[in-house]
Automatic annotation (TrEMBL):
Taxonomic source organism: Streptomyces iconiensis
Posttranslational mods: Upon Fe-S cluster removal intramolecular disulfide bonds are formed.
Name of protein: Transcriptional regulator WhiB
Cofactor dependence: [4Fe-4S] cluster
Similarity-based family: Belongs to the WhiB family.
Biased composition (Polar residues): 1-11
Intracellular or extracellular location(s): Cytoplasm
Location of the 4Fe-4S Wbl-type domain: 35-99
Amino acid sequence: MLQPPHQTLQAAATVPVQRTPAREDQAGPWHADAVCRRDEAGLFFAPSKEPTAARLSREQAAKRVCARCPVLVECREHALLMPEPYGVWGGLTAAERRVVLSRRRRATTPDPTDVPRIA
């Protein structure tokens, strides 16, 4: 099920990593079905020295494209597993992906203060 575009980073961080089977056995790799293949690449990647207001507007437009994409989850997981350092992938910016990755690491890293003490 695709995640809504207004999803919080907390929800993205807590979604378990699901490795979907490779789609090569279906009509090609997952990215062949990506909606962004029909859009301007500049929408998903920042030009150099882009003003903040323009960047935010561009990122929101890119996220709207991602929201209607049938392979949003596969794209997002690709960007998190690789990890992709730039651009909007799977409806998340590079900064948002760093937050998700950090939260996932914390969720899977044991807390050293939780070690039982031997009396």
